[in-house]
Amino acid sequence: MSDEFPLASPKKGSAGLTGYWRVIRPVIDFSKCTRCRLCILYCVENTIDQENNLYPRIDYDYCKGCGVCAQVCPTKAINMIPEVK
Ligand code: SF4
Ligand code: SF4
């Protein structure tokens, strides 16, 4: 996780990996992503990291599927897709 902001990193809790709760999953369309970092800043679970190429990477072990990242993305590069379980 990024160490530029004083945010806690997600950790496995007594309920297990919080990503198991998810019913919809954010999927990034990298052809629309401008690497603006807003999704990283706004992710309520701090589960989005930045790869070496500066594109965002979502940690699905902890993403709860809240959709905040999709809402704040200025280019609508993040689509919320139903989980297939
Ligand atoms: S908010 Fe959208 S455009 Fe910005 S880094 Fe995230 S996915 Fe890319
Ligand atoms: S759906 Fe919510 S928890 Fe998952 S990456 Fe987006 S903002 Fe973070």
- CATH top level assignment of one domain: Alpha Beta
Spans of 5+ residues with little confidence (pLDDT < 50)? none
Compressed to H and E, one letter per element, the order equals EHEEHE
CATH topology of one domain: Alpha-Beta Plaits
The small-molecule ligands in this entry are: iron/sulfur cluster
Mean pLDDT: 90
* Number of separate strands: 4
SS element count, helices: 2
The rounded Rg comes to 12 Å
Give the amount of beta strand, in percent.
Answer: 15-25%
* Secondary structure category: alpha+beta
CATH 2nd-level architecture of one domain: 2-Layer Sandwich
Secondary structure: helix percent: 10-25%
Biggest β-sheet, characterized? 2 strands, antiparallel
User: Termini distance?
Assistant: 27 Å
What is the 3D form? globular
**Strand arrangement across the biggest beta sheet:** 1-4
GO molecular function, one term: 4 iron, 4 sulfur cluster binding
Organism: Acidianus brierleyi
Keywords: 4Fe-4S, Electron transport, Iron, Iron-sulfur, Metal-binding, Repeat, Transport
Protein name: Ferredoxin
Question: What keywords describe this structure?
Answer:
single chain, 85 residues, alpha+beta, Alpha-Beta Plaits, two-stranded antiparallel sheet, two-stranded antiparallel ribbon, binds iron/sulfur cluster
Structure description:
- By secondary structure, the chain is of the alpha+beta class.
- The protein has a domain at 28-82: Alpha-Beta Plaits (2-Layer Sandwich).
- Helix content is 12%, strand content 19%.
- The chain is built from two helices and four strands, in the order βαββαβ.
- The chain has helices spanning 38-42, 68-72, and strands at 24-28, 48-50, 56-58, 78-82.
- A hairpin with a 5-residue loop joins strand 2 and strand 3 (56-58).
- The structure holds iron/sulfur cluster (SF4) (2 copies).
- One iron/sulfur cluster is lined by residues 26, 43-45, 47-48, 58, 63-69.
